[in-house]
Design brief:
heterodimer; A: 2 domains; six-stranded antiparallel β-barrel; 29% strand; elongated; disordered C terminus; B: 163 residues
Chain lengths: 287, 163
């Protein structure tokens, strides 16, 4: 007679038992490593039996941890409170500035609705998306057909012409920038009234002005304004500044580069222009 | 020697194993986790030495099974190691009892290390865990702890008149 944890059972010699249990262990391991259902059940059963043990093992530590966490939380809350109060004060200052800015913006918007460009009514539109690449320079605006945006409408900002609306959906519209390779805008030199057409080149800071002969009076620094020819763009609004004029004797025309005056890469809002109905409008639109 | 144990005495032995298991799974900081001695192995060795007729290979195996589940290791891995440890202890129990304390702790440490070696082998075989030098840290901790644990458990055994 022998015992097993104190309970009497009949038992063979130690070595036999060892061999037996080793075999059992190996069998268990093999079964377990093959994700056997039986070993899972066995593991679950033993785990359930030993659950109080684990709880007991975790108890002093979880209690200590909780107490410590309480202390830490308290300290952190105080620190957070101080920090947030300072932040709040700073933000309050900023908020008051924001109020002033908002008032200013409202004022400017009111001014805009008055008349930025003679004969046109203007309205701010937010830029939703920008696609800028060598083959397409476009903006998407948050105003569409429901806001009376129409194809061919001129879009400007505070510095110059941005482009024209090329497609309209109910709530958004696509604007082709003057730098789009498909875009051409009739311009006139402010210095001497020389007419030309500025084409986009697919880059946000360059325009080209082809088809001017070597005799044309154009110099770097000349400001080109829209001429209003074609009827799309409002006349007299700045478009570009000439940066480079090169004359190649082998070519019939000058090579002229200009930089758009509108800040194409900067703002989040642009102005949409609606021509006013009236005698004033007819007079300026030549096309 | 073969007088049956009272329920209280059995409960005490069981409690010592349970305490060892709790100590084995108590969460420790990373820095001293490596130095955690193999409590269950030492307690098992003690009871095998003290009551070789009652605590043996079977008890070791069951203990190992519990450890497997608690550690989440491969089922049977610790069971095998603990059964082997129990067997080795029973095999050398008479000699172990004769040794002076420090020699005894070295011998016990060696036995536990042997069973640990078994574990390491199984791990590297089955799961591809390579043996690490850090595996030897608990072995050293075992040797250091043994004399104290032996003293405590012997005191407990004598008070409870378990023999």
């Amino acid at each position: 007679m022998g015992t097993f944890l104190g309970w009497s059972i009949k038992r063979p010699s130690n070595l036999t038992k060892l061999i037996l249990f080793v075999c059992a262990s190996v069998a268990l391991m093999v079964a377990d490593s093959h994700n056997d259902q039986g070993t899972h059940m066995m593991r679950d059963a033993v785990l359930r039996a030993s659950y109080p043990l684990q709880e007991l093992a975790a108890l002093p530590f979880s209690a200590g941890h909780d107490a410590f966490k309480g202390l830490r939380t308290n300290a952190r809350l105080r620190r957070d409170n101080a920090r947030l109060e300072a932040l709040n004060r700073r933000l309050a200052v900023k908020a008051s500035q924001l109020g002033a800015l908002r008032a200013e913006l409202a004022h400017m918007a009111a001014l805009l609705h008055g008349s930025p460009v003679p004969g046109y009514r203007a309205s701010l539109a937010r830029i939703l998306d920008v696609s800028s690449g060598p083959f397409s320079q476009r903006l998407t605006l948050d105003e569409g057909a429901r806001d009376h945006v129409f194809v061919g409408q001129a879009v400007i900002d505070g510095h110059g012409v941005i482009g024209q609306v090329v497609s309209v959906s109910p709530d958004t519209s696509q604007v082709m920038l003057i730098t789009d390779p498909d875009s051409g805008i009739p311009v006139v030199s402010e210095r001497n009234g020389l007419r030309a057409i500025a084409f986009g080149m697919g880059s946000q800071d360059r325009l080209k002005i082809p088809y001017l002969t070597v005799t044309a009076d154009i110099r770097p620094g000349d400001i080109l304004a829209s001429s209003g020819l074609g009827g799309v763009y409002p006349p007299g609004y700045p478009v570009a500044r000439v940066t480079e004029v090169t004359s190649n004797p082998n070519l019939a025309f000058l090579k002229i580069r200009a930089v758009p005056l509108a800040r194409l890469g900067y703002h989040t809002h642009v102005l949409l222009l609606w021509p006013r109905k009236g005698p004033n409008n007819r007079k300026t639109g030549h096309g | 020697m073969d007088n049956p144990l009272s329920l209280k005495q059995r409960a005490l032995i069981l409690a010592s194993f349970v305490a060892a298991m709790i100590l084995a799974i108590v969460p420790l900081p990373e820095a001293i986790r490596l130095l955690r001695p193999d409590w269950t192995a030492l307690v098992l060795v003690y009871w095998c030495m003290a009551l070789p007729e009652r605590i043996g290979v079977g008890s070791g195996w069951v203990l190992g099974l519990f450890l497997d589940v608690l550690y989440g290791s491969l089922l049977g891995e610790q069971a095998l190691a603990k059964a082997l440890l129990a067997y080795l202890t029973l095999r050398f129990t008479l000699r172990l009892r004769m040794f002076p304390r420090w020699q005894q702790s070295l011998a016990v440490g060696t036995l536990v290390a042997l069973s640990d070696l078994m574990l390491i082998m199984i791990k590297s075989l089955v799961r591809g865990h390579p043996p690490l030098w850090s595996d030897t840290a608990p072995m050293i901790a075992n040797v250091i702890l043994w004399p104290f644990l032996f003293g405590v458990l012997r005191e407990v055994r004598r008070r409870a008149k378990i023999s």
